[in-house]
Design brief:
Layout: H1 2-18, H2 22-33, H3 38-45, H4 51-84, H5 102-116, E1 120-121, E2 127-129, H6 130-133, E3 167-169, H7 175-183, E4 188-197, E5 209-219, H8 224-238, E6 245-252, E7 255-264, E8 283-292, H9 294-299, E9 308-315, H10 317-324, H11 337-340
Parallel strand pairs: 1-4
Antiparallel strand pairs: 2-3, 4-5, 5-9, 6-7, 7-8, 8-9
Bound molecules: phenylalanine.
């Protein structure tokens, strides 16, 4: 009897300390004071004890039962008073609100300017094949950008169709041009944002992954003036109404003629003197562009005698850095909340 009573008391103590709400206390009451409670079984054993033991254990069991019901009552009270102790004047805990990542915001901002100009957003794929990333875009087989030093090739089985070559992580968003052209008929005006990958060593202005936005338009009478007009509208809406454009001749295999585009420095406004942004040049490079090469149109099933098109591709990080005065590309990817919550 003695060990059983001790065991019961210990078990109750343990259960009591683990209980923290009214529901738990009710379960405790049923277990220790209910009809099937262990203590009732012990009570029923008392009559079979010796005369002397009967008196002692009857009394002890009654004491234990009182102790249990008192402890349960007290626990219930303590929970009740805890709830009443809420101080309604106490300042609430600060709610940490998430926000869009600066690069997502800038990429969306760029796309929404082009949407206003009549472009439709179409996303390409990050895993591409050699045909869409290079061949369709008139990039020759011996072009250095195909080298494994400039492109991440994927160590996975090749596409079924032999002409598509190997799978890779796209090194620019231009394959989106080939994807859209192969399945849609002109007129087309498309803007295509996304991540691109190049095996560059990471420093303040390079990363192995960054973002680009590709844009292109195809119709019967598209010419270079349309390209100029669209880009001029874009920089005025995105940077500032007094920004100007400069086209410098350049080469891309997928456009002819090709150009690189600079905007006039919106900090020194062309005054150049000791400008920390343009470093005294008065101009900032922002994108590459040109008239879509007839071979690219033909590769994707569009009649190059009937249709012409322009295309451009720009980074997202660089315009974001220029616009928000960010001087190190690595800040975008480190996920330091102190940096991110500024935007
Ligand atoms: N794909 C080119 C790059 O990554 C940019 C570009 C796009 C140039 C479209 C011309 C036309 O540098």
């Amino acid at each position: 009897m003695e060990t059983e009573v001790k065991k019961l008391e210990e078990e109750f103590g343990k259960d009591l300390s683990g209980v923290c709400d009214a529901l738990g206390i009710e379960a405790l009451r049923v277990k220790y004071l209910g009809r099937k409670a262990e203590i009732n079984r012990l009570f029923s054993m008392v009559p079979s004890l010796s005369k002397e033991a009967k008196g002692i254990w009857g009394k002890n069991l009654n004491i234990l039962k009182n102790k249990i019901s008192l402890a349960i009552e007290e626990k219930l009270k303590s929970l009740g008073t805890k709830e009443e102790k809420i101080d309604l004047t106490y300042p609430a805990a600060r709610l940490e609100k998430g926000s869009r990542h600066i690069l997502s915001a800038v990429s969306e901002e760029i796309c929404s300017v082009f949407e206003k100009l009549g472009f439709t957003v179409v996303e390409g794929t990050e895993i591409e094949d050699e045909w869409h990333n290079f061949s369709a875009l008139n990039i020759p087989l011996d072009h250095p950008s195909r080298d494994a030093f400039d492109t991440f090739y994927l160590d996975i089985p090749q596409p079924q169709e032999k002409h598509r070559g190997k799978f890779l992580l796209r090194s620019h968003t231009s394959p989106s041009q080939a994807r859209v052209m192969s399945v849609s008929k002109p007129p087309l005006a498309v803007i295509s944002p996304g991540r691109v990958y190049r095996p560059d060593a990471v420093d303040a202005s390079h990363s192995f992954m960054f973002h680009q936005v590709e844009g292109f338009a195809i119709d019967k009478n598209i010419n270079f003036a349309h390209l100029k007009g669209v880009l001029l509208n874009f920089v005025k809406l995105f940077f500032s109404p007094d920004v100007n454009l400069r086209f410098r001749p350049h080469f891309f295999p997928f456009t002819e003629p090709s150009a690189e585009v600079d905007i006039s420095c919106f900090i020194c406004k062309g005054k150049k003197d000791k400008c920390s942004l343009c470093k005294g040049k008065g101009w900032l490079e922002i994108l590459g562009c040109g008239m879509i090469h007839p071979k690219v149109l033909e590769n994707c099933g569009i009649d190059s005698k009937k249709y012409k098109g322009f295309a451009f591709g720009m980074g997202v990080e660089r315009p974001a850095m220029l616009k928000y005065g960010i001087n190190d590309i690595r800040l975008f990817y480190e996920n330091d909340v102190k940096f991110l919550e500024q935007f």
